[in-house]
TrEMBL record:
Protein name as it appears in the record: Alpha-L-arabinofuranosidase
Catalytic activity: Hydrolysis of terminal non-reducing alpha-L-arabinofuranoside residues in alpha-L-arabinosides
Organism: Aspergillus caelatus
Family annotation (SUPFAM superfamilies): Arabinanase/levansucrase/invertase (SSF75005)
Keyword terms: Glycosidase, Hydrolase, Secreted, Signal
Stated role: Alpha-L-arabinofuranosidase involved in the hydrolysis of xylan, a major structural heterogeneous polysaccharide found in plant biomass representing the second most abundant polysaccharide in the biosphere, after cellulose. Releases L-arabinose from arabinoxylan.
Annotated GO biological process: L-arabinose metabolic process; xylan catabolic process
Enzyme class: hydrolase
Amino acid sequence: MKASLPKSFEWSLSGPLIGPKDDSYDLAGIKDPSIIEVDGVYHVFASTAKESGYNLVYLGFTDFDEANSATFHYRDQIPFEPHKLWYLVYQNGNAAYSTNSDISNPCWNLGNGTWVDMWTICDSSDCYLFSSDDYGHLYRSQTSLGNFPKGMGNTASNVYSTGDGEYLFLVEAIGSDGARYFRSWTSISLSGTWTSLADTEAHPFARSNNVKFSTEAWSKSISHGEMVRTKVDQTMAITSCNLRYLYQGVETWAPHPGHLCVLTGNYRTG
């Protein structure tokens, strides 16, 4: 029997795992992570924050406890199976993407611009680009599988297929206490109506009130991250019974996002 998503969520949180190195880049923080596991190696792409602006960093590692020791290659990624390429979708003042035939190679082609927080997912016939803004609006564009990455139209931040005929939609929100958290909805179709799953402060997908800290409660906000996936294609599939979420933690004593950490689900699926 396939595992289904739970109706409520509880998480355990690691301590800070990935943060700025003591090097010449002098970063204030690392944020906006995207992650995929390929052949036992975790590949992480993230934004780097410093006084002069934002940039990108890539790192690869096999153990989260040793992640910050990995080499940082300073420079939302999915492989598009029909093209045999990896697509790194990001913002550069607009929406942009770069491609690479080898995810472990830190050299990507120059960005091609076509909003903030873009997310791409495909079903058997179409590709959908979801985007959100800082005012609570959510947008969706789509194009045919054969026409990707061109032809985006029809305006509709994470969307995943769960393997049981359902899609999980995660959206970051700001709580009444000013801290960030995640709300969730489900649908049987990427183009269909979304139904509430865990979407309030009292009943959230992930918020400080349903997280158990392994160390001190160092981050009250849960902001901009991605599920750890092992299936390598454009369907963005996850396993409902083994949810892990890499996100940017905002230290309670610092005004900027500083480190990446991992939520691990503590529940039984139906």
